[in-house]
Amino acid sequence: MTTHAPLSDTTSATTTPARPDTGRVTAGQGAGDVFGYTLMAEDGMARRGRIVTAHGAIDTPAFMPVGTAGTVKGLTPEQVAATGAQILLGNTYHLMLRPGAERVDRLGGLHRFMNWPAPILTDSGGFQVMSLAALRKLDDDGVTFRSHLDGSKIRLTPERSIEIQRLLDATITMCFDECTPFPATYDQAASSMRLSMRWAGRSRAAFVERPGYALFGIVQGGVHADLRAESVARLTEIGFEGYAVGGLAVGEGFDLMCQTLDVTTPLLPRNRPRYLMGVGRPQDLVAAVRRGIDMFDCVMPTRSGRTGQAFTRRGTVNIRNARHADDPRPLDEACGCPACTQYSRAYLHHLHKAGEILGAVLLTQHNLWYYQDLMRDMRDAISTSGMDAFTQDFDAGQAEGDLPPL
Amino acid sequence: MTTHAPLSDTTSATTTPARPDTGRVTAGQGAGDVFGYTLMAEDGMARRGRIVTAHGAIDTPAFMPVGTAGTVKGLTPEQVAATGAQILLGNTYHLMLRPGAERVDRLGGLHRFMNWPAPILTDSGGFQVMSLAALRKLDDDGVTFRSHLDGSKIRLTPERSIEIQRLLDATITMCFDECTPFPATYDQAASSMRLSMRWAGRSRAAFVERPGYALFGIVQGGVHADLRAESVARLTEIGFEGYAVGGLAVGEGFDLMCQTLDVTTPLLPRNRPRYLMGVGRPQDLVAAVRRGIDMFDCVMPTRSGRTGQAFTRRGTVNIRNARHADDPRPLDEACGCPACTQYSRAYLHHLHKAGEILGAVLLTQHNLWYYQDLMRDMRDAISTSGMDAFTQDFDAGQAEGDLPPL
């Protein structure tokens, strides 16, 4: 067990007494005044645990639906909570441009603004600046860019990113970093990682400590084991309440992602949550949980839901395919979500062909339900030392493919 | 009291014993094996009543949300039921083109297909053919047109319209008619009305009687009192379970609509529900209820909700207006809907500016909630002889205008 973290005020692995949730959303039970991670069970490298925050508890491994602009696209917070989600991700880049961080602050913070009293993690904005904004200019102090909405010139530094995340009232704040592109030369990956590590120190200094809130560091270093190790060493020297693995799921592919995790997660503190950013497909989640990851976020279940792609226990299903037009069967017979228990494939097909909003809503809800079921099943498997059996079953189901036509 | 209707099997004004609703949606309580209308109270011409159908009861005056293509755009059936709606309208034209009436029949009918076990009224398709389809050709037997979806050539006659509505399993079927355009000469209105009356006879003959199901006739005749009277006489001679007033809300304006109702509803059988098709704004509903109308449908609350227009007790509000960007107050402080109790104007404004699905969902839900509250308040007012006071309050609220800026 690594013990690099010099923090004293936030390292408690004990769970503080639950207090009643005062919000309308049923998620967010078990709020605590001290941010802490409890490791409850291990199965190989896989970990089952619980994170306590100011806004409620999170059972891990956990999947965080993406609520880019203050809403998980298409769903009410009640519908999101019904899937089993206990924490959402918000995008700093989008929210700073619209409606604006100061405005969200005046309106009581993001939890109140979007009616989600449970935990929220915000990214730092850095990744989206590089993927969405125009005329980006990176220097050692930060990045200047133009808004993709109105072209206005904006400056983002570690200090401003951390301030924005505080104004948003993020439960978990992420360090401002540069997501190293792939491919990159070794030297590019090294200098990019070292820039992110300097920014991690500035992020830590800028972060305002509040009970039950947390700042996570982000490990970079591309696909190079020594750079990843250097990054972990620098971050744990600074000390964070949790550690993310960044710079993956950027085109390196499944095998390189797994190899990079293999050389990174064993170095991370055992008593801190570990978050793999931007991942991924169901098979990626299983592989990463087996390599010791506790938290995930990805737009895949929500974005795919809007375009007609469903994730099921038998692989992906394109509901727009004509084969579903007369099919009275549910999308996934083992799923308990509204789309599967109340509607036929024929109806879901019809909604998507007709471009109806409800089609996006139901498939988004199903996909998030499926992702949350997957995480819950993995938590159960870890508790019973059943991850190997679970993984075999999972792989067999995915390989089996969709139901044959009637 | 008029007593034209020669029907014997469906004239019962008694309420059959309620049976449990077997569907998942909570609407649809009080289903009966005999279709019937009970007049419970009158206040001037305004009527409070109850319709019993095979799929549940409907308290009148009632507003029917429009579920064009097998979904009330943006909402789940649970969300629609939560607004207080007890009956939906489905569009025969849209459903016959996609997913197709025979397909809906194979899948168990529209109630099951869209998970709405409560009553459904379908229009005849005639109005949409004239407003949406290409290359329409009307003859005495029916209408030939090309689908606006794929250009295919389609024939619609009274017999086929009634068959389609049976395949959809409509609780209330509408006669196939021609909606007389406005303006029209007296001779055009007369010959159009007489064509519709011949089609009404054919619709009645084609309708397959089923316990708890109903066929409604449609009064035409433009804005001409004698033609409306002739139309009522012809329809009541045939005999229907309910009577609609068609050919209004087509550009004639509020005053001519009211004048036409004034000369039409007094002629209609007192023991049958009366339905004003395609109406309207909140003030139109109040005016028409005062003139003896029991049922309404209109796309206004749903369509407006998607584009950012809200109906409130203080008139309409355009939530996209910049004045709402920082406003923490609810849209309508007297409204109990989720949009008003859980979110600020600032959040709703943000969602609509950002083009988020949830913005359409919440405003649609609010508008339907407001419409259903309006109908409920009118039912209560009629029961207590309070329609005059209600109307004064309603007019005062609408005239007051939206909240002043903070």
TrEMBL record, chains A, B:
User: Briefly, what is this protein's role?
Assistant: Catalyzes the base-exchange of a guanine (G) residue with the queuine precursor 7-aminomethyl-7-deazaguanine (PreQ1) at position 34 (anticodon wobble position) in tRNAs with GU(N) anticodons (tRNA-Asp, -Asn, -His and -Tyr). Catalysis occurs through a double-displacement mechanism. The nucleophile active site attacks the C1' of nucleotide 34 to detach the guanine base from the RNA, forming a covalent enzyme-RNA intermediate. The proton acceptor active site deprotonates the incoming PreQ1, allowing a nucleophilic attack on the C1' of the ribose to form the product.
The cross-references to InterPro entries, in alphabetical order and at most eight, read: ArchSynthase1/Queuine_TRR (IPR050076), TGT (IPR004803), TGT-like_sf (IPR036511), tRNA_ribo_trans-like (IPR002616)
Which ranges are annotated Polar residues under compositional bias?
A: 1-17
Where does the chain bind Zn(2+)? 335, 337, 340, 366
Q: Which organism is it from?
A: Tistrella bauzanensis
What ranges does the record give for the region RNA binding, renumbered to this chain? 278-284, 302-306
The protein's name is Queuine tRNA-ribosyltransferase
| Residues that, per the record, bind substrate | 123-127, 177, 220, 247
Recorded catalytic activity of this chain's protein: 7-aminomethyl-7-carbaguanine + guanosine(34) in tRNA = 7-aminomethyl-7-carbaguanosine(34) in tRNA + guanine
Top enzyme category: transferase
Which residues does the Swiss-Prot or TrEMBL record annotate as the active site? Answer: 123 (proton acceptor), 297 (nucleophile)
